[in-house]
C-alpha cells in the first residue's frame, strides 16, 4: 500500500480488505477499464465518499491495489551476491504479474498513466537502487530500462512470455552493459 | 496500417481518413478509454458496421490507428552503420510517442492488450530484426527488452523522460550486452 497505513483497529482494515476484494472481483468480471469508484463502493458495501477520500479517482485506486501484493515494506533479497539478489528481486516482480488479476490491474492503471510517476514505479525503482545502487553497479535508468521496463512491457503486451528465464536474461544483460 | 490497403479509388481512402480524424479528435477530448466504435462512426459520419467490419472492436481500432504514423512500409535507416541505424530507428519511435496523441492512443490500446500480439509490436520487432538481425547483432528478445520495451514503458508511464539521449543510451547498452 502506498498510503500510510494507520492502525486504527480492525474497522479500517476490514473496510480496506472489502474494497480490495471488490476491486479484484470487478476487474475479473468487467476488465479494469470499466471499474469505477461507485461500482466498487456498492460491491464492497461502503460509502463512495470513503473510497474517493482515500484514492481520489479510479485509476489511482487501481494502481494502488495493483501494487498491494508487492508490499514495499517486504524484505528485499540481500545476500550480498548482487547478481543473485537482482534475479530474486526480478523474479518477485515477474511472479506478481504472472497472476492475471495483477496484469489486468496494471493494464487498467496504464490507461490513465502519464500525468505523474506511479507509486508502483517509485517503489520498484527505490528497491532496485537499494539492491544495486549502493554498490554503484546500476543507476535509476539502468533499473527502469533494463529491468522494470521490459518486465512491465511484457506483462502488458506479451504476458505469456513472462517465463522463468526472463529475470536471469535481463539481469545478465544489465550487468554486462 | 495493419490491414492490407486496397486501392479501391478515393472513396475508401476518404472514409479511412475521416475515421482516423474522428478517433484522434475523440481521444483528445475524452481519453482513449472512453472512445467507442459507435462514437467514432457518428463523428466520422460513417456506418458503424464498416468500422466494426474493419477492426472488430475499439481496442484493435485504437492500436491500429496509433501505429498509423509509424508506417510499416516506410524506408528504414540502412546506412550500414549498425549503431547509427539503430539510433535513428529508435529516434523515430521516440518521436512518435512524444506526440501526446500517440501516447494517449498507446495507453488506450494497452488497457485491452494481452490477448495476442499487437500489430504494432509485430511491426517494430520485424523492423528491428531487419536492421540488426541479419548481422547477428541482436535477436528478437534484445529488441523487445533492450529497445522497444523501455521506450514504450516510458511512453506510457514516464512520457516526460522521452528525451533526445534515450535512443543513444539504449542502443549503446543493447550493443554492449
Automatic annotation (TrEMBL), chains A, B:
Domain HTH tetR-type: 13-73
SUPFAM superfamilies linked to this entry: Homeodomain-like, Tetracyclin repressor-like, C-terminal domain
Annotated keywords: DNA-binding, Transcription, Transcription regulation
Organism: Dactylosporangium vinaceum
Matches recorded under Pfam families: TetR_C_11, TetR_N
DNA-binding region: 36-55
Transmembrane segments: none
Entry annotated with the keyword Acetylation: no
Record protein name field: TetR/AcrR family transcriptional regulator
Amino acid at each position: 500500500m502506498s498510503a500510510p497505513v494507520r492502525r486504527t483497529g480492525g474497522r479500517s482494515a476490514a473496510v480496506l480488505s472489502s474494497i480490495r476484494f471488490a476491486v479484484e472481483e470487478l476487474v475479473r468480471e468487467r476488465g479494469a477499464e470499466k471499474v469505477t469508484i461507485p461500482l466498487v463502493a456498492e460491491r464492497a458495501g461502503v460509502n463512495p465518499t470513503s473510497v474517493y477520500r482515500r484514492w481520489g479517482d479510479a485509476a489511482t485506486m487501481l494502481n494502488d491495489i495493483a501494487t498491494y501484493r508487492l508490499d514495499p515494506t517486504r524484505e528485499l533479497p540481500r545476500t550480498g551476491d548482487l547478481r543473485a539478489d537482482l534475479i530474486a528481486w526480478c523474479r518477485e516482480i515477474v511472479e506478481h504479474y504472472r497472476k492475471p488479476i495483477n496484469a489486468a490491474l496494471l493494464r487498467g492503471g496504464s490507461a490513465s498513466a502519464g500525468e505523474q510517476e506511479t507509486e508502483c514505479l517509485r517503489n520498484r525503482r527505490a528497491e532496485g537502487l537499494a539492491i544495486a545502487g549502493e554498490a554503484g553497479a546500476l543507476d535509476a535508468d539502468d533499473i527502469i530500462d533494463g529491468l522494470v521496463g521490459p518486465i512491465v512491457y511484457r506483462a502488458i503486451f506479451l504476458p505469456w512470455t513472462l517465463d522463468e528465464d526472463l529475470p536471469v536474461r535481463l539481469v545478465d544483460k544489465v550487468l554486462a552493459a
